[in-house]
Amino acid sequence: MNSIKKILMATTLLLSITISHAQIKNATTETVKIYGNCEMCKSTIETTGNLKKVAKVEWNKDTKIATLTYDSTKTSQDEILKRIALAGYDSDKFLAPDAVYDKLHGCCQYEREAKVAVSPATKMETVTTENHAGHANHSDNAVTKQQVDTTLKAVLDSYFLLKDALVKTDGNSTSLKAKDLLTAINSVKMETLKSEEHIVWMKVLNDLKEHSEHIGDTKDISHQRDHFMDLSKSMYELIKVAKYETPVYLQFCPMANGGKGANWLSKESAVKNPYYGSQMMTCGKTVETIQ
């Protein structure tokens, strides 16, 4: 009987995958481990991972193995697993934010294990904490600074250099700085992010990449500035949770964006307008100080 049951299960899975392939173009099928306990977990994992005609997730609560079928031109394994992590479920690539995991129903709170390899940054954080045992405040500050230095600081620094290139109305330099920013974005180790940073990072990641790519792919300063407006919106969300080492100023130009106005971030309190450069260098004002 057990053999027959296994054959039926395998047949059902095969038929399901075949149907998914038929509905999803450019279909890629992969299996990954996602942690959970019960049928409620299964429902959440599959519902969160599924996208109509783009991605299909089927999760086995006994083996913890999920079969992902997706259109590789529209999404990726990482994007699917990020959505599932945001719903509270760890995989071997992405950890759910602690705050989200804590809100799962009691029966859904699976046993969590270390599933992401310890990065050099994480090792340094551990050493810092151990070396300052008994000095809690000093240790906390050291760990926080180390996390920023090895993860999001490079992204923020690259953004500021990009802004400076726009202030100079230098399309060539702006393009290069945008490519540097994209490299910094792709280098972020998500496993080192704190829970709040992790949530925002996954929310803004695609927009950060998209607008950095657009700015890097052209030397047309007008087109670069258009995308910088949207880039700055996502960067603002990020810097609100990833505190920078010095105060950062949210500045606003009422003339930009066809008179609708647009924001940008700066390390300097003095206004240097990236949307107009020398034409209207000081047009704008500081509307918020982030520290």
Report strand order across the widest sheet. 1-3-2
Q: How do the helices and strands follow one another from N- to C-terminus? A: HEHEEHHHHHHHHEEE
Calculate the mean pLDDT score and round it.
82
Count of structural domains = 2
Global morphology: elongated
Stretches with pLDDT under 50, minimum 5 residues: 114-150
The amount of helix comes to 40-55%
Q: What's the total helix number? A: 10
The counted number of beta strands is 6
What is the terminal-to-terminal distance?
A: 65 Å
Give a short overview.
Helices cover 52% and strands 12% of the residues. By secondary structure, it is of the alpha+beta class. The chain folds into two domains: 2-108, Alpha-Beta Plaits (2-Layer Sandwich), CATH 3.30.70; 151-290, no CATH class.
SSE layout:
Layout (H helix, E strand, L loop, with lengths): L1 H22 L3 E7 L5 H11 L5 E5 L5 E7 L5 H10 L11 H5 L17 H12 L4 H15 L2 H15 L3 H17 L7 H22 L4 H21 L6 E6 L8 E5 L18 E6 L1
Antiparallel strand pairs: 1-3, 2-3, 4-5, 4-6
Helix pairs in contact: 2-3, 5-6, 7-8, 7-10, 8-9, 9-10
What this model shows, in words?
The chain has 291 residues and is an alpha+beta fold. It is 52% helix and 12% strand. It contains ten helices and six strands. α2 (39-49) crosses α3, α5 (120-131) runs antiparallel to α6 and α8 (171-187) packs antiparallel against α9. Residues 114-150 have low confidence and may be disordered.
